[in-house]
Amino acid sequence: MAQATVVGSEVTKFLFDYGRKQRFSVGSYIIREGQMARNVFVILEGEAEIVKADENGNDKVVAKVGKGTILGEMGVFMDQPRTTSVRISEDLTALEFTAESFTSAVIKIPDLSLRLLKSLSTKLSESNDAIVGLGYAQSMLTCGMYVLDTRPSQTEKETSISLSMQQIVEETGLEKSIVRNCFERFNRRGVLMGLGFQGSSITGKANYPKLVRLLKSITWPGNRPEANQPPEAGTGTPATPPAATDSD
After folding, report:
1. Which residues does 242 contact at the CB level (< 8 Å), separation at least 6?
2. Which of 31, 127, 137, 239 could form a disulfide with 243 if both were Cys (CB 3.0 to 4.6 A apart)?
3. What beta strand segments (E) does 103-200 contain?
4. What does the pLDDT average to over 219-245?
């Protein structure tokens, strides 16, 4: 199971405007394995156990989580049934969000958006159940995160970029043709504008908020209009589809 995403007090204070405070007692379940993902939780106080049913139907504890932990976000992002349950092990207070309210909040916190996208990428790679079309999503996600990782610490929502194609290939493990295909698609969607490819250099402008929103849209099944489309002729083929799971 991939490591859970934990947020600090400042982010939690911001999230109060989007969630609803709830209290849960020891032994209760706030997430049930097999149910469709509809809500996200952020623990304010208390502890919980991440449990998964074994072959005999018995719950096995796979992790323990506490204050600041985000629960259930991957199931919401992927629009899939829960693959684990969350059981309260110590009286717990949490913020509860609908999928829509959590997404609205996350988009306004760039650093949290990036962390969640990285977590999603890891969970896609670690799963054992292949999903057709996620090779494309994984490639776009990887290239998009690279752009977010290399942005200046202090920047407007739109700024100039200058990247090395060779460095992207070396750090992501993607083929050059796949990287160029992804960047050209970003360009057509207006998140990376005026891109130029000269030698090993990629130049242009990036709109970071729009990039984050696009990465989220191509990651969610059922909301990825291009996830199952092949690349244009001459631009290479998507990476081998990774597997996906919701560990929350």
Report:
1. 124, 125, 127, 130, 134, 135, 138
2. 127
3. 158-164, 192-198
4. 37
Question: The pTM is what?
Answer: 0.53
What is the enclosing helix (H) or strand (E) of 177?
A: helix 176-188
∠ CA 84-221-178 to the nearest 5 degrees?
115
110: phi then psi, degrees, rounded to nearest 5: -55, -45
Q: Give the span between the Cα atoms of 7 and 12, in whole angstroms.
A: 7
Measured distance CA(12)–CA(6) in Å, rounded? 10
What φ, ψ does residue 23 adopt, rounded to 5°? -120, 140
User: What are 228's two structure tokens?
Assistant: 């199952």
Task: Please report which confidence band the pLDDT of residue 240 belongs to, taking 50, 70 and 90 as the band edges.
Answer: very low
Domains of the chain: 9-105 (2.60.120.10), 110-219 (1.10.10.10)
| Selection from 104-108, 164-168, 229-233 with the highest mean pLDDT | 164-168
